[in-house]
Amino acid sequence: MDIANILTPDGWVRGQLHLENGRIRAIEGTPCDPQTNDLTYLLPGFIDLHVHGGGGSDIMQGGDAFATIARTHRRFGTTSLLATTMTAPREELTRVLAELGEHLKQPRQGARILGVHLEGPYINPGKLGAQPNFAHQALLDEVEEYLALAPIKVITIAPEIAGHLPLIQALSQRGIRLQIGHTLGSYEEGVAALEAGASSFTHLYNAMSPLHHREPGIVGAALAHARYAELIPDLLHVHPGAIKVALRAIPCLYCVTDSTAAAGMPDGEYRLGSHTVTKCLGGVRLPDGTLAGSTLTMDQALRNLVKIGLPLAEASARLSRYPADYLGIADRGRLQPGAWADTVLLDRQLNLTAVMVEGETA
């Protein structure tokens, strides 16, 4: 590989990677300050833990949609992702998860799909956002059925629903990440969920009870107590000032796209689960104007974070290392010997010039 400014866990190195069997064998180079040269930037590939679609395809379509979505997001620097479902009837979720489970047995196409983020149906019907109205109480036998079909890594859940706290405790003990989201819960209910084992918040600020100085809400619970939370940095879902608040409060805040089928596509109408959504003016909305996911890609997320003042190394960590750490993955999200060779190469204006997934350059 050509010499570049390589971002390692120990800082910037002017040098090159040596690869073997899709992994980093060694990093050859010397410590550097990238502001003193004009070399390109080599960063860890982006890890997106909230992806509904892209390239005109939606996860809930199943079949060929998975490969289309993985290839689309690889174009924008995402090297691994979680396929994220929409709230839907049990039989539809069963079908999609079964098809995804079979897809994951096939050779990788595009970004590596690490598993599933089940966003609903265990959410509050009073805080659906753009989710279809199939929300219901979580049942362990239903979750067990889904777990047998595909590797579910993350589940979004509203903690205030009766029976959810014991389920959060049981599933978190099995290594599943429970995220608080689409919720009307109080601050106290949010804290109780964290104490039961919930470990993050789904698209922080959006679709959750807001912060008020006498009723802190779920946002207040996140800002006061969370180590991890996901946030959509498209500068449409969350104001830059609110992003900065979260950055100061939540040590390992990580960023997601919450992307829909409209990502990487022209303006027009697209599917989002059972909904039809419209992409226009840089966003995706339901007919009533409700934001319905995004058109964000991870390379633009990086540029947005730098635009609002984050150093490039910190912006990279919130798109790669922190999401890997959240899932407990030690060999992705960082450039170091033994890790998968998942990389993005950017020019000095932070435009993507090359993407590598597990040692293969696209």
UniProtKB/TrEMBL annotation:
Q: Which gene encodes it?
A: nagA
Give the matching SUPFAM superfamilies.
Composite domain of metallo-dependent hydrolases, Metallo-dependent hydrolases
Residues bound to Zn(2+) are E119, H182, H203
- Fetch the NCBIfam families from UniProt: nagA
Similarity section: Belongs to the metallo-dependent hydrolases superfamily. NagA family.
Enzyme Commission code: 3.5.1.25
Swiss-Prot/TrEMBL cofactor(s): a divalent metal cation
Give UniProt keywords alphabetically.
Carbohydrate metabolism, Hydrolase, Metal-binding
Entries under Pfam families matching the protein:
Amidohydro_1
Q: How is the cofactor bound?
A: Binds 1 divalent metal cation per subunit.
Question: Which Gene Ontology BP terms does the record give?
Answer: N-acetylglucosamine catabolic process
Q: Which organism is it from?
A: Pseudomonas soli
What PANTHER family would the database entry show? N-ACETYLGLUCOSAMINE-6-PHOSPHATE DEACETYLASE (PTHR11113:SF14)
Q: Where does substrate bind?
A: A130, N206, A207, R214, H237, L291, A292, G293
One GO MF annotation is: metal ion binding
Catalytic residues at D258
Output the InterPro entries linked to this UniProt entry. Amidohydro-rel, GlcNAc_6-P_deAcase, Metal-dep_hydrolase_composite, Metal_Hydrolase
Show where the Amidohydrolase-related domain sits. 41-361
The molecule here is called N-acetylglucosamine-6-phosphate deacetylase
Q: Which CDD domains match?
A: NagA (cd00854)
Gene3D superfamilies according to UniProt: Metal-dependent hydrolases, Urease, subunit C, domain 1
EC main group = hydrolase
